[in-house]
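Table S2 (continued). Query chain:
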Amino acid sequence: MGEALDISNSIPKNSDITIKGTDDYSEIANSQLIVIAASTGVYLKNRNEMIEAQVQMIKNIGKNIKEKCFSPIILIVSNPVDVLTYYFQKETKFPRNKVMGIASSLDTSRFRLQLSQNLQIKNSQISDAIVLGEHGDSMVPIFSKVRINGELGSKMIDSKIKDKVWSEIRDYWIALRNYKSRSQFGIAKNTFDVIEAMMKNQEISIPASVMLNGEYGEKDVCMGVPVTINRDGISKIQEIQLDTSEQNLFKLSANTIRENIKSI
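Corresponding output:
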């Protein structure tokens, strides 16, 4: 409620936007798009340390949303995002294309940033840098697809740089938290990009966590994969070619998420 009071002061005078703080789920009745950024606390060591409380929370949120809304699009930001996306979809039984976790796109932004810093080039010179799998320690940066100035970056990215960049992406949140309470602007921008595309009836291609049903050889698990999103939700799960090492790491990441799901 305090956030709503504060944000309301920033609404442009000609805007028709209304912001309201409430704990009454009837206020979101018939909403077409819902972003879940709730948390039962602040994790300090890893994104899974409050997993049981977080899963109970997401089930409760899912139950309340299902009672008030008919097949809305759900963007889940809360952590551990892959596990919560899974349990929310199971609780609500909403179509899988309507429920997505927004996190792998943030890891992708961090991937591109760390590559540019280690290679001492501009962020804009890098394309097709993408992170798949868990939003966690088993995430999989796809180095084989990275292009620098339009050319494959394999000649510039050796094993030493790979290891360093991978470590920096994985631990980015820890470094950030040494200076402030949590990641805010990065995840907000990545979430906003999805919302804007939906509202403007445009398509956006990003990695997002979604329930897999055979894609990449995985079933009954939510994890970050490349998707195309439009106003109706996920219109396509893109199956890109991974090299053997990346395939193995992707499989390991899927199993890691499954173990976290089974731990509840």
